[in-house]
Amino acid sequence: MLLITCPWCGPRAELEFRCGGEAHIARPADAMNISDADYARYLFMRKNPKGWHYERWNHAAGCRRWFNALRHTATHEIRATYKPGDRKPEPPR
Amino acid sequence: MSDAGDFRLQTGGRIDRERRMRFFFNGASYVGFDGDTLASALLANGVRLVARSFKYHRPRGIMTAGAEEPNALVQIGSGPRVEPNLRATQVEIFDGLAAASQNCWPGVEFDIGRINDFVSRLLPAGFYYKTFMWPPGFWHLYEWAIRRAAGMGRAADSADPDRYDHRFAHCDVLVAGGGPAGLAAAFAAARAGARVILCDEQNEFGGSLLGGAEKIGGKPGMDWVAGTLETMRWLPAIAMLPRTSAFGYYDHNLVALCERVADHLGEPKPGQPRQRVWHVRAKQVVLATGAIERPLVFADNDRPGTMLAGAARTYLNRYGVICGRRAAVFTSNDSAYAAALELAAAGVEIAAVVDLRVEPGAWGEAAAAKGLRVIAGSAVAAVRGAQAVKAIEVAKLGIDGASLAGGREIVRCDLLLNSGGWTPSVHLFSQSGGRLAYDDALGAFVPGKAAQPQRNAGSCNGAMTLAECLAQGFAAGAQAAEDCGFAPVTPPMPELEPEMQATPARHLWIVPSLKPVGRGGKQFVDHQNDVTAADLRMAAREGYRSVEHLKRYTTTGMGTDQGKTSNLPALAILAEATGASIPAVGTTTFRPPYTPVTMGAMAGRMNGAFLDPARWTPMQRWHVRAGAVFENTGQWQRARYYPLGGEEMHVAVEREVRAARTTVGIFDASTLGKIDIKGPDAGKFLDLIYTNSFSKLAVGRCRYGLMLREDGYVFDDGVTVRLGEQHYLMHTTTGNAAPVLMWLEDLLQMEWTELKVRLTSVSEQFAVVTLSGPFARKLLAELTDDIDLDPKAFPFMSWRTGAAAGIPARVLRVSFTGDLSFEIQVRASYGIALWHAALAAGEKYGVVPYGLEAMHVLRAEKGYIVVGHETDGTTTPHDLGMGGMVADAKPDFIGKRGLRRADLLRPDRKQLVGLRLADGERRPLPEGAQLVDDPGQPIPMKMEGHVSSSYYSPTVGAPIALALVKNGRARLGETLYAPLPGRTAAAMVVAPCFFDPDGKRLHG
Ligand SMILES: [Zn+2]
Q1: How many other C-beta atoms can be found within 10 angstroms of the C-beta atom of residue B615?
Q2: What tens digit of pLDDT does each residue of B472-518 get?
Q3: N or C, which end of chain A has less CB nearby within 10 Å?
């Protein structure tokens, strides 16, 4: 079970959180004028890397806030958690 | 000697001879002492044969003195308190303990499965795979017999009466293992001021010192242990947990411990759990988990009386038990000499020390000086005696170690000790993600690079002398504390006896026997699963080169001991057979738990009613008293129907529906999801999340809304009420209340951060009583005098506030039955009072409570959808005939673009329709039934749609159904067929509304 640092509440056990999948997927502004293929990419296509991954998490059994995290999918190292709107951190080299 | 055992010495050991414990093993009665394990007490009583082996049912004795025991598996207790798969070497005896061998039938002395040993040429590695997979489909016939013969123990015959707990703990430093290294680490960390948790699987701290004879500071090692524990007791922030196994090491330094709180008492004391699982999150972890002695792989190395040298030492020093009268010792390394010398000093005759090494070095000389006969450069080539060791045959080893040279000497003995070296217990380290490194001198893997904030100390780290263990322990504890921000304190090293000069071990993974491998006596590698050196070689010849495949194919290391004594020899034999090096072959994955953990401990309090919380409405107790039959909707328990005088379900439901259509029904709708939405942008927000518009809704009005996902499919539906200019109340379906709230929060926090909107779940803050039926208004009028109920003043889809039965209420004129209907919302605490008042006032109107089932019939008669019945995650508003609710003129809403995807615009999509059956047919179609055009067509048939809801309608007087049918709205009047088991039902496609299509009742 991971130890996840909520940007508002501090480090808490994973069982208080819910993962919301890949982060930084922009909702197309002009959706009505983009192709089905492009819209399908927005709706369905997600990265599944072995390595660093930007993710959305919700502190569901805590403050109920959403935030982003940079997590390594193989080691589970969480390099950073940050508030929505904050600049995303670079993955370590 | 006494009745406490012929093999018990008069003095010595850590047992309390004043406290005699009577216990039972396989029905026979014995006496042991407080402090004994079942194994030590049996050995003291001369019980050699304790089990039959898994596959060949060979007689087996106790082989070890710890968690690694592969043979002596027992089941203890009876009735509801049965626990199988326990190791006799870890079971503490108590007065009245009843234990039984697990793997023998009909009994341990005479075992019918023994026949397998004589036909073992027919039972090679992979035997089950090769034999029982043919003919296909017959496995279920074989399985019963195989499982019965395999003897996995028996489950309890009724529910476990004991309680199990879970506890979460945080600390600076967790030390797993309370031997010399672990104690030193805990002491150093605690002295530096760190919060420390120290756990050890045994009943006493001390680890190897419990069974050894080493001196520390000139005194017995256990005196140092006692002194260290006493000092630590006075430190402020240390928790010391004996009988507590660290069984799993998870991410981010989470270590799971299982504390056996009351197992050693037989029954827990009042208020005490039997076991407790600790979830420890540590800033730093020190693993001091020790090492496990490896048995040598030689012919017939499983005969009862064959035992690890270190185990015999433990039985002697810790329990005052000698395991035989005349012992032979067979070793590859120095460590067995301590056992030989200590046993000799205790009066056991040492017949010979057979050492694989040509030059046994200083230890050999010391043994010889004490008059022990050391036979160097030799091996035990054979063991004589089937039920117990009677003698060994010793032969000189050839230079290559793979063959024997010269003649054989027969050495008589009743105890055969052996040691193939020590394997560091790297299980937890490996579980933590750490990389292992192979140490040639040890012939074993040791911790390499750590993956978490963690250190290793002592013999689990490859340290094989007491001085190294203590030094590593002190250093690891001090460094762990320093990494937590404390100034390190390194305690002084105590004075130790000089170490004997060490001589390198000779690692010989298969000791040659009189015949080639596989022809002579069995050379067991995995004693628990009966895997031999020949099996492993055969698997390698058959092409199993990956250690993971080898493990599964031969089942080596797959018993409940997880191969603690066998994994390393197995992979060394695979390496030899495939010409690879041991580190190139690598190890199998170490997985939790280190030792078996009971299901009770895993479940903890999440058991029975606590497994999943049940949600009750404020009127629940009334429903129970009224004899309601309940149905679960998520965690909610909802009244399904209220049978009167033993009514069957369909009778009760029909009565309830009829009342709601002819007089008035009352329904508890409190479970509906309710989200309070406030803020200047609330209307704008609702416009974005519903297909239709809410910002223009007048205060005082209600509107039904459809909520889509981005892909255009229906997610949820419900009525939203405008309470004020900046204030709405959203209703969701009962089951979707939490997902909808989470989705709305997600959008506000991550997508539309500029919108000023606040969401509050109020599902449980309000009780909702629905009155529905022709007399609903009359009944409501009895309850309120300050709400104008005139249809013109209070039209459909509006709401008013006032007093209902004197209770402040909000009344919604909405309907999910298609009938005149009012929903009265009051604070939850008033729910039951309102319910009682409405029932009393409604008596003269023939009010009848109706349950969830009747509600479903009522809404289906009207053709109202239920998310999850009429929708399946691929249903659009247009499919449901609700295209008119999609406000395409809005610039944006969730799902707007998704609805334009090509597949969602297909003309032949399934559409919501109604179905009527042939006249006289009273059986409703089964929900989920497929519909076809031509029931005579060959299978697989072309499916035209499916039934989504189906009931008997008392209002119609016939079964009705809702269905989703390809291009259904254009097919009204057509007949479709539902092929059912044993019959085919014909159904006519009709409009999805069977009651009051003009809405006269709704608006009346
Ligand atoms: Zn939080």
Answers
A1: 18
A2: 999 999 999 999 999 988 889 999 999 999 999 999 999 999 888 88
A3: C
Which CATH architecture fits A3-82?
A: 2-Layer Sandwich (3.30)
Q: What is the distance between the alpha carbons of residues B24 and B5, in angstroms, rounded to a whole number?
A: 14
Q: Indicate the pTM of the whole model.
A: 0.91
The pLDDT-based confidence of B40 (bands split at 50, 70, 90) is: very high
Residues 6+ apart with CB under 8 A from B937: none
> Which residue ranges make up each domain of chain A?
3-82
Whole-number Å distance between alpha carbons of B158 and B755: 57
The percentage of chain A sitting over the pLDDT mark of 90, rounded to a whole number, equals: 97
The whole-angstrom distance between A93's CA and the closest CA on chain B is: 17
How far is Cα B330 from Cα B485, in angstroms, rounded to an integer? 49
* Residue A45 in tokens: 């296509």
CB atoms within 10 A of CB B522: 24
Place of tokens 């009207």: B862
B253 vs A: CB within 8 A: yes
Structure tokens at B94: 């108590």
Structure token digits, residue B815: 């309907």
The conformation of residue B460, written as its DSSP 8-state character, comes to G
In three-state secondary structure terms, B974 is coil
Substitution target in B170, B251, B284 with the highest count of A β-carbons within 10 Å is B251
Interface test with A, best of B606, B675, B897, B899 (most A CBs within 10 A): B897
DSSP assignment string, B351-409: EEEEESSS--HHHHHHHHHTT--EEETEEEEEEE-SSS--EEEEEEEPTTSSSEEEEEE
Complex ipTM: 0.98
**For chain A, percent helix, then strand, then coil, each to nearest 5?**
15, 35, 50
* Cα gap B738→B605, rounded to integer Å: 25
Quote the CA–CA distance of B899 and B874 in Å, as a whole number: 11
Task: Copy the structure tokens of residue B953.
Answer: 């309608």
Least Cα distance to B246 among B198, B300, B208 occurs for B198
> Count of residues for chain B?
1004
Whether the CB-CB separation of B810 and B728 falls below 8 Å is answered with: no
Tokens of B266: 């037989």
Element (H, E) at B625: helix B620-625
- DSSP three-state, residue B133: coil
